[in-house]
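Appendix B. One record, verbatim.
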Amino acid sequence: MTAEPDGPEDRLRRFATIWSRAVFPVTSTSLTRPEFEQQLVPLARRLSEALRARTFQATEGQAVGAAIVSAHCTDPEALSRTLDCVDAYLVLYCGEDGPQEALRTRSARLQHGMAAGFARALRERTLSEQEAIYQAALNARSTVAEALHASEARFRAVFEGAAIGIAIADLEGNILQANGALLRMFGGSEQTMRGRRVPEWTHPDDAPQVWKLYEELVNGDREHYHVEKAFYRPDGTALWTNLTVSLLRDADGEPQYQLALMEDTTERRLLNLRLRYEATHDALTGLPNRTLFFERLEKALSAGDDQRFGLCYLDLDGFKTINDSLGHAAGDRLLVEVADRLQSCATAPGEMVARLGGDEFVALTTGPDTEREVDELAGRIMNALVTPISIDGRELAVRGSIGVVEGPAGERGPAEVLRSADITMYRAKSAGGNRFELADPESDARAITRHGLTTALPAALDRGEFFIEYQPLVHLGDGSVHGAEALVRWLHPQHGVLGPDQFIPLAEHTGLIVPLGRWVLEQSVRQARQWQERHAGPTPLRINVNLSPCQLTHPGLVQDTVDILEREGLDARALCLEVTESALIGADDDLLKPLRRLAEMGVDIALDDFGTGYSNLANLRRLPVSILKLDRSFTQGMQQFPADPVDLKIVEGIVSLAHSLDLAVTVEGVETGAQAEQLRILGCDTAQGWYYARPGPPERLHELALVDAAG
């Protein structure tokens, strides 16, 4: 028969039992251990409820810490054992099935609160005892002779029974009396204690004002002072205390003795140091984390005028591939090895390495000559990553991109410096990676501008900040206006009119190119319809609209085009969609299928920038294109007379090939009459460029068309 599992109350009482057994031996109480355990049960329940509460209250830990003092657990060892017990068993017995990592975090915060509550309650008790001692000392001097014995007895009881250390010394610093708590704190005998003088108790960590306050007190210029002070124990270890020293005067008001009260804060200090370390260091690599790094960077940037800083911002190249292929455990081991190598690169004074998170690390150097040192540091880091790292029998090559920022202290803040380093690191990564780049203010400004444009793009489309200009397409045979290419512009509130090269790549990167492209197509088709209504020529004006690679792969391309043509009432034969040659290199049937459907509807497909994509000319036969747009680089040599013979041969060959495949040829970038005439002779069909007209409003194209009709 299987025993039923313990319920929450049973586990709670087990936790209380473990707690009482750990703490009872160092507790000053008249209770038996079972009775003492009953006192801890409600405290254990309070911790359990706080651990699992919907809304976490760290103050519950403080309340429990104070309650421990109320239960006469005033020995610092009691706090240490309590925190060890809570750390080891609270989540185990009281966490139930909650998320372990979150429960561990709450448990740590409860421990911190308990330590704080314990210290506060002990301090309040100490102050209360100080007041009692002080009053007892005054009463001892002023009580009439017949009550002197009773008063001294009371003082002795307080003196010997106090949980804090108490010592009395004369004004020359000779120790006259020390209670048992003080002797236990120092680990020596009363004879040893009396053999020392107060001025001998110096420590390297003493604050400068400690001994100044002491001199003022023994000279009668100060009644008391309170400081945090460290002492050496006989075995050489450090004892940290909250020290209060008061001046005792005789019946005539003359200084006579000094009374010292010491609270041992060593364990609390060690706990705070441990918590501070955990809060400022990376749990995986042990390196300083983002918090500590920013503290150091801020300190370096606020140094004197003659100081400089150098910062290396490292991001591993291809780390995601390692994580995805070998698993996060292997990725973590690689990060630990990288951290060790980086640590060995920054050992000089003023240098540090930190992990910001993920696979991002930073190395900082400070001093008067960081212009040279930061280059050397970046070089050492790159060399440290050359040797492959062995993980589970695999030799993994490690590459990294580094952004380097160097400059004088006091000119920039930490956030600005780190942003510049991040921008520079991505510039190094874009250049191929496995290298370091130096920060450049102009590059930073361009990157910041790009970021600002990227974030402003969605709202710009909603606010109607985009508009379209049209550049005429001219028939080379008779010079008539054949149609126009639609070119989108952005009227930015701060930067003015921006061309497509400044924001189209950003729109493609963010995915906004799809709604923006749909808007351009809709506006252009509507404009073409208006031209046809106003221009009753023998051939209707056509409109060319560019398609980005992202639009080609969008499933709604064909349907959007059909809907727009039908809604605006434009014949599909009046629309030409331009696709860059590079977007169709190696295109499979799935990518070409929507273009074929559009071509079957009557929409012309133009292969834009032809000649720049290094495509196989034989592929032209399988592409659903009807027009080749020859890149301007092939015709620049024709702007002057005589034309470049090599360019003439190339263009002649392309035109011959295109016409043999029943493809029309359009030439971009025509800027001179000689160029236009030569292209006409070579058999090109249409052309566009500044020779005919710059991109402009739709009215200009209508005017040009009317001039042609009149001619």
